[in-house]
Amino acid sequence: MKEKKILNFRLALIKGLYKAFVLAIGYNSFSTSTYAQGTSEVSLE
Fold first, then answer.
1. Cα→Cα distances 20→8, 24, 26, 31, 35, Å
2. Any alpha helices (H) in 1-45, and if so which ranges?
3. pLDDT digits over 10-29, tens only?
4. Between these two residues, 44 and 26, which has the higher pLDDT value?
5. Cα 44 to Cα 38: distance, rounded to the nearest angstrom
């Protein structure tokens, strides 16, 4: 019973990390143009 709880916890943790990763990728691809402009401006200074 205890091992199953740990397994479920790990699964939930992996799912949470995966969701966060997917959200981060989606956010990055969504704001890539503005982010690229910002970094290019910073590197020029």
1. 18, 6, 10, 16, 19
2. 2-30, 32-44
3. 999 999 999 999 888 887 77
4. 26
5. 10
